Amino acid sequence: MYKPYIKPVSVAKPDVRVPEPKISKLVLFVCRLFGRLYLFLFLGIARIVLRGGEHIFRAYQKALSGKSRCIVAFRHPNGGEPQLLMWFILFKLRSMARKARFTFCRNPHVSFVYGYEVARWGGGMARWIMPNLGAMPVHHAKIDTAGMGQIFRAISEGPYPLAIAPEGQVSYTTESVPRLEQGTVRIGFQAAERINKAGKECPVEILPVSIHFRYGKMGEWSLAKLIRKIERYTGLENREGKAGFTERLEKARYYILEQNEKRYGIAGKDEKSFNERIDSVIEKALGTAEQLLGIGSGRQETIDRIYRIRQLCWDRIIIPGKNDFKDMTPVERALADLRAGEAWHAGRHMELVDFIWYFRVPVPLENVPLYEKIEYAQNLWDFANRTMGGAYSNRVLNVHPKRVLIQVAPKIDLSARLTEYKKNKKEAIGKAMDDLVTAFQDCIHEAAEYQI
Predict the structure, then answer these.
(1) Residue 17 is assigned to a structural domain of this protein
(2) Domain count, the chain
(3) Strand pairing of 69-74 and 162-164?
(4) What is d(CA 383, CA 387) in angstroms, rounded to the nearest whole number?
(5) Among 394, 409, 433, where does a domain finish?
(6) Residues 418 and 390 in one domain
(7) Which of 359, 356, 350 lies closest to 305, judged by CA?
(8) Do the beta carbons of residue 355 and residue 172 sit within 8 Å?
(9) Alpha-carbon distance 258 to 277, whole Å?
């Protein structure tokens, strides 16, 4: 499977065609046959526990019978959440609901919304499975009328709930909510307004879902192995065995940060905190990527600059609208290849920022739960990985086996807020966003108190 992040790109490629979303019985059969094995072998998921089940059972019962429209708003801190939730909803939800005395009028399903770049780096298998399970691609950084039209039809007309990650992308932290984008709430309100104007009594509800990993003794062994790997790559091996967990990771993260400061020629680090130094690297890295692409930063926020750079990089590596290069002269083709190579290198700076924007958190203390230590160590490796030119596809997620806790919060009814939305859209969206953040924070607190 060709993945551009594994080695530098030097050749531009034709456009990637993503089929129209549909539900294929063949793909459903394949997922039923191999889905659980995939979750175990590739994501290390050994056991799944559902809490707050009555919230998702009730939401699905209403949505599948056409009495409501549901948006499953799921946290996306690690990367495997869509695969896990898809398998769980398709093949486990109905039987679990039946045990709790909830019945569904049809088999449950969910239509995921994903970034178009996933189809580009995910390979042929992802491009076959996702659209054939009804998943819909959308662009982050450019107008996508067709993609948004599909999404609105799915939420307004059904027949299945829509799944969106309000974080917009992988956020790398489970135990806090660093940022949410307004897209999920905006889509929900606009769909509620359309349904209301059509004279239908069908509330639009957001269902917050949070996913948490837990580990046993094997997790401790995997953590020790991962820390040794980080120290080997940074030349900070703990040969005498005297340093503790916090000290070892502290040394490694400062070493990696210093390497980035040297790379970008950043001085004056002694007067700055760790987070201030990270911010300096972010600005230099984004500026370098933008310079390579021949664009300015404008007045955009950091995340918007990341999205814009990512979009331009992919559009130069995999050229939109080009099925082949037969109509290009050798000079034009050579220039396209050069632009693709430049875009790949610009992408290395963007990928660094994509991660470290979320990495402004302190090193965990010795007495924190094992899952917090593992998450930080995985992120610290990713700091080294991005510094070396890697991307998400090189991220370490194989701390096995995992026990997964799916924590569901009560619904947020957007249709009940339509009057407020019509009076002041900004205020209504802001309140709904605050409620969504609170729901996710409540999930974090509840998950921390539950032992699996």
Answers:
(1) no
(2) 2
(3) parallel
(4) 6
(5) 394
(6) no
(7) 350
(8) yes
(9) 9
Give me the average pLDDT of each 10-residue run along the chain (452 residues): 64 89 95 95 93 97 96 94 96 97 96 86 86 90 80 88 95 94 96 93 96 93 92 84 88 96 88 92 97 87 94 94 93 97 96 96 93 95 93 76 95 97 97 98 95 80
Query: DSSP readout, 407-442?
Result: EEPPPEESGGGHHHHHH-HHHHHHHHHHHHHHHHHH
| Long-range contacts (CB closer than 8 Å, 24 or more residues apart) made by 3-9 | 3/121, 3/123, 3/393, 4/120, 4/121, 4/317, 4/344, 5/121, 5/351, 5/390, 5/391, 5/392, 5/393, 5/394, 6/393, 6/394, 8/341, 8/344, 8/345, 9/317, 9/340, 9/341, 9/343, 9/344
300 burial class (0-12, 13-18, 19+ CB within 10 angstroms)? middle
Predicted TM-score of the model (pTM)? 0.93
Nearest to 23 by CA among 11, 15, 31: 31
pLDDT reported for residue 6? 63
**H or E stretch at 173:** none
**Residue that is last in its domain, among 354, 371, 394:** 394
Structure tokens at 90: 């398709």
Say whether the peptide bond before residue 159 is cis (omega within 30 degrees of 0).
Answer: yes
Q: Which residue has the tokens 């998950």?
A: 447
- Per the CB < 8 A criterion, the answer to whether 279 and 269 are in contact is no
* Positive or negative torsion for Cα 37, 42, 45, 46: positive
pLDDT score of 1? 36
375 & 439 share domain: no
Q: Is 1 helix (H, G, I), strand (E, B) or coil?
A: coil
210 and 300 part of one domain:
no
Residue 451 has what pLDDT? Answer: 82
DSSP letter (8 states) at residue 271? G
Nearest alpha-carbon partner for 406 in 87, 172, 34: 87
Q: Which residues are CB-contacts of 400 (< 8 A; sequence separation ≥ 6)?
A: 44, 46, 218, 222
**Residue 212 belongs to a domain:** yes
Q: Are residue 362 and residue 434 in the same domain, yes or no?
A: no
What does the pLDDT read at residue 2? Answer: 42
Beta bridge partners of 406: 50, 211
Please give the single-letter amino acid code of residue 308.
R
Tell me which residue of 225, 10, 207 sits closest to 93, measured CA to CA. Answer: 207
Classify the C-alpha dihedral 314-315-321-327 as positive or negative: negative
In whole angstroms, how far apart are CA 379 and each of 85, 228, 256, 286, 355? 23, 14, 12, 20, 8
Nearest one of 24, 233, 203, 32 to 128, comparing CA atoms: 24
